[in-house]
Batch of 2 targets.
Target 1
Amino acid sequence: MAYADDVENEELHEPTSFISKYVWSQDHKVIAIQYSTTAILVGLVALVLSGMMRMQIGFPGSIDMDATAYYQAMTMHGMIMVIYLLTAIFLGGFGNYLIPLMVGARDMVFPYVNMLSYWFYLVSVLVLLASFFVPGGPTGAGWTLYPPQAITAGTPGSEWGIILMLVSLIIFIIAATMGGLNYVTTVLQARTHGMTMFRMPLTVWGIFVATILALLAFPALFVSGLMMLLDKTIGTSFFMPDMMQFGSQLDYSGGSPILFQHLFWFFGHPEVYIVALPAFGLVSDLISVHARRSIFGYRMMVWAIVSIGVLSFVVWAHHMYVSGMNPYFGFFFATTTLVIAVPTALKVYNWLLTLWRGNIHLTVPMLFSLAFIVTFLVGGLTGLFLGNVVVDIPLSDTYFVVAHFHMVMGVAPILVVFGSIYHWYPKITGRMLHDGIGKLHFWITFLGTYLIYFPMHYLGFLGMPRRYYAYEDYPFIPDSAQSLNAFITVVAIVVGISQLLFLFNLAYSYFKGAPSGGNPWRATSLEWLTPETPPKHGNWGPSLPVVHRWAYDYGVPGAVLDYVPQTTSAEEVPVHENDHDE
Amino acid sequence: MLTQTTSVPFAASPGYFDQRSASAKTGLHLLMAAMSSMFFLFLLSYILRSQVSDWEALSEPWQPLAQTGQLWFNTALLVVASISLELARRSIRQPERGHSRELLMLAGLSSIGFLVGQLVFWNFLTTRGFFADSNPANAFFFLLTGLHAVHLVGGLVAWIVATVRLERERREPTEEGLALTRLSVELCATYWHFLLVVWMLLFALLSSSPGTYAAIAKFCGLGD
């Protein structure tokens, strides 16, 4: 590959001052940490908001929260978790850290644009958080921001909150596009000697395909956000229909709220996979390393990722069954939705078959990976319920839906985020995270999230509607539902507070953790083979690594070690003396 | 340490620009793909919205787009910009850089001319009372032409970089400078062709008749 030959001769401008090294840094590893730290911090805000909502539901009136504040908390919680935490940490965090290291590049191909991407992201977060301090507070329109209510008086934050939300999203999309151009181009153009596309770890494949989805799907959010912003600020009628408000005719006419829903979900559904595909990739690598087994069906896994990515663009209207549509459309979208189950199930089977007869080490990353598989399975199976029009309609807008999407794209990806941080933290800092605290954190989080979300399926079947501020005086909701809600709240608070264990572990281990060495998990992929840990600027020292094999050579028959790094050629593999004939 | 062991004179890595230019081209293609997604979704929204009864197409005989002379003039300017960048891209490969300097200047000036022309037309619309909020067709006109203009302004930043590089290379010719200049001009040419195609699509759509919108909507399954 021409790239590798040439880039070795490239002059490296190692940053010298504190500012250029840690603040205005163009190093992908620093940018990754900036992205992740910001995402986790803003995620904590969203976590606190969810705790407040749970207090109101479980113990009504126990905290000073009115309906307005409840809707604002709900909206900000959803938007922050989906966009500003999960999307940012998977693409901006893991994508930035791992892509160049895993493909053997010195950095992203456009480091300056990469740096701008982070700073735009930070501005988008600050604009979003600023909406807590404007008159009327943040928007309470629900994270889907459906017009006309999102920009009409009566909805919390319809004065300034919604404007800041839309501006923040537009800035975020610019940031994601700048980052996305980098991730995809780096994968396509900056792989080292011998690193073919089909030798890349599945982590890279997941992030690569997710980024392509982001580049094509985020424009839909941009388009809808910009048009709604104009409806709000200069009085256009893209989405706003003829409306009466407090007895007087508003100055809008003819706009189509359904058009917004189509645009939003044309972004919104691929967004699920923008979060899920990197999680699929990361968890594949965690399972393979910690079960000491080559990944089962590598090519099948790659094609599953690609086909899920393609299919994710033709299922969006399954979020709109209750909005009303031609029955043939419902049939089409239900069919495509169920078809996605095929490549997804393939992936689950392949993870299981990778574990089959593996030398499973129940390390913290492995525990999180196993938890991911079962959680994702539960979330995926309830997706089959909701993908069918006839089943969806009675369950729509109930707690069944809340349980479904929290399992499948809330808890499942977050488990992968945790597992991956436990796995790669030694490379980032040179120290291991504390195992005992890690296991405690795992069990509380895993069991806790099940105790929170599993009963919600039942509440959904009872008909408990979602997005309600209070559930008193609804004859169809039995009293026992309130007991369950109180139980869920208690567990949610415990799980929420237990995340402090994780933060403590991050801080404690940074100073006191056991030194990890360069490759504590005895893994094969390139990021574990850097000359220094943590990797220095330029990653590879004087010469780039040369790749001879795929990233999953664990338990190669006849080899002395149970893993063969990607940089080891066939001749260099140490083999048992008496195995030569095999 | 790292810097010392890997630092070599620039000329020692002749293939460096192959990689750099391949990356830059891939990046630009991806950017154009994302922009295409955006404009495509705007156009779909446009068609869908045009089927509501309050839509007053700007192309009706009594509406401002019945006479498209100004917009044709603007289009001609953008065509000139695109062609001159293409010629600049070719001539910069010639031994004495051909007329690349003049062509690059022409491209920039005609692009600025295009932007001014668009502003003149915006002014024409507003002075006749066609504001963004008076009809969705107007709103789309301002929105789409505005977004196209913003992307062209972004292109002009790249054009300034190309111009500066060309000037620097003329004064102190180096292999590095030449390769960078060529790359810049090449990327500008590709981007301008793309923006020209986008503009022609926008122009065609914005000035079409309501019958055309109805036909497209029906074809896409969006109409009644």
Target 2
Amino acid sequence: MTLHPMIAALRRHKAGVVLIALQIALTLAIVCNAVFIIGQRVERVNRPTGLDESNLFLVSQQWVGAPSGDDPASVEKLDSLQQADLAALRSLPDVASVTPINSLPLLNSSWNGAVDLKPGTTGQGSFNGTRTTYYFSDEQALSTLGLHLVAGRNFTVADVQHRGFRDQGEPSLVILTKALGDKLFPKGDALGKVIFLNGATTPTTIIGMVERMQVPGTGSWTNSFVWNATLVPTRLDANFARYAIRAKPGRLDAAMHAVTPTLYAANPLRVLDDDSVKSFAQIRAEAYRADVGMAILMGVVCLILLAVTAAGIVGLTSFWVGQRHRQIGVRRALGARKIDILHYFQIENLVIASVGAVIGLMLAIGLNLLLMQSFEMERLPVAYVLAGIVMVLALGQGAVFVPARRASNVPPVVATRAA
Amino acid sequence: MFNYYLELALRSLKRSPGLTALMVLAIGFGVAASMTTWSVFRAVSGDPIPWKSSKLFVPQIDMWGPKGRGPNKTDNEPPDALDYTDAMALMRAHRGKLQSAMYQISPSVVPADAGKHPINVSGHAVYGEFFPMLDVPFLYGNGWSADDDTQRAAVAVISGKLNDKLFGGANSVGRTVSIEGKDYRVVGVLGNWNPQPRFYDVVNTGGFSTGVEDVFIPFERAIAMGIPNDGNTNCSETPAESGFVGLQRSSCIWIAYMVQLDDAAAVSAYRSWLDGYAKEQQTAGRFSWAPNNRLRDVPAFLDHEQVVPSDTKVSLLVALGLLIVCLVNTAGLLLAKFLRRSSEIGVRRALGAPRMAIYAQFLTEAGMIGLAGGVLGLLLTGVGVASVSWVLPKDIAALARLDFSLLALTLLVAVVATTLAGLYPTFRASRVQPAWQLKSN
């Protein structure tokens, strides 16, 4: 079958062809980018934090009228408040382990700094070195959070210090994530090495490495150091405290309910509200709400787009079939088989959709460039565009099938009737 | 004549209900997607204080110098908040008409009723000029005086919401509220005031917030009582001393600042004062770099801080793309529909109808489809705005509202856009040659 008569026919209704091709092109451009956005968000949301997230929850609370924590005596007072809470929580029947911690992955409240191989000099900015987030916790951090130690050892009770929230001073030992250790010591021999935290002049020894632990921040500003975490064996003493709690398997709800009365019983002068006790699942949902929302929004837009474009193809092809009713009859009368008529409309659609796809390819890349320039998007991978092209071609074929089959059912006798 | 065209359009639409439904659905969905994303965009990009935003300025001083910029920053922007030293210097100089340094606090409040647990509230430590500067509405009482500021008076302004909670909504001016275990005298109760974005302290609030600001206490009182800052603290180097006092003596930034400057002369005077101040610091040896200050008004600062989430802009862009596709689709279908009626057009033209009459007839038809699509779009926009609260972050979703102007805009966009989409098909219809049509029949 030669394309020549088909092209000649298409030239008879240029405007309709141009509009369909344009619609397919725009659909391709938007769907490619939207699906790319969805893919990126899904990838972000699905990355593991490195924690064993089930049965884990967090308590954030604040003491009322607590000492300032600005002098040693008040730091001791705050620490005893925290110790009392820890003891009370650890004695709960449904609780497996508890650790005081300043933040958790995905909590979007973070303490960040930098670690370096060289000691700092006074007055040097702490931006020097490799960026990291700090988790201040104790010897139960690894077991409570479910972190996997891949080298070295865990903190012991004797390693754990405490200090005021705003006091200075760096720890003598830390556990790093493997990602951070390998970045500092690319040969992979970080264990036992000495590093300097936040431009300090006193050394800190790496005593262990955990497989993976994400930083608390989920914004794009954390992208450069998202797996660089440093665990510090120090309880921070302030007028507030956070406790990460691992419930015994299957006892999450019971443990979460038991926390508030237990803490009030230990000390009623504190703030505990609806937001104070949160399961890790809740923390995760809140952290990624915007990403999930964006993915859903893009998904809905894609569905509407594809439906509208498919319906548009059905509508316009139906019109063309109606318009060419008589010509189809003539072709049939001259010996064309049903399948020839079917193929005619299918190939016609393929030609139009291909032209649309080529324009759409350029528009997709253009839109991606625009998004990259203004909104920190990444480059659209070729695979997405190719998949998009296949999709719009398939969509066109699917949409054209019903009107094309109706065309193929036009009987040859139509040719003999007057128009 | 218009009624006649309406009747013709109705008849034509009824003749091919499938095609009509298709066009109405496309317009409805396209307009609804655009309007839903627009409602979110409009909410987050709006000017929170339109009558005054061009008179309110945020000063920035470069207290970190080039080395505090970090390896990833290529621009020469100074930090976007102030350290304590510079904030106090600006307050002392008092060069604006009204000004206030401020920092975010999150103190506990103990209800007077025994047996009630303490609650946590959010708020700001500010200067008395904060309230008149931002035209903060009061339900009862007022802000506090400059004397209260200097004497570090134990006074507080509370929100209407906190007033409801603590005092059952009664006029609580003169009564006592316990903040961080200390008694404060209530001098004012705020009316309904919850500006979004939180333009006066974008740096610490991140722009939008679901909560209401519940307490305001004098800045210097909060410092004296050691009420710590609850917002962000950014340091280019580790503070030399410990504690909240150490933070105050460091170059860490945690204080927001706003100043009211009424005219261009005041702005340029303030600018040159800032440069003079930075030069002074350079001479004194505190800064080892040339003055590098900024003085942006509220809209410029919101833009600089990129308060409008890029997701919101991308969504709007994509939804507008969807609307364009829907219009292209409608244009194609209208073209097919109009040209199918070539013989009818031929007859009308042959009987003496001018081209303008054909235009009027077919644009009326397009407009009717637009109207029907708009009505469907209204319903779908309602559904869309209601369901963004399920998918978007709460602080942003809470701002998206369905109001009269959005509804009117939905209808207007639907009708205008569809009529525009109908222009080319109508043009083609008007070019139909009557003789040719009559002959072929």
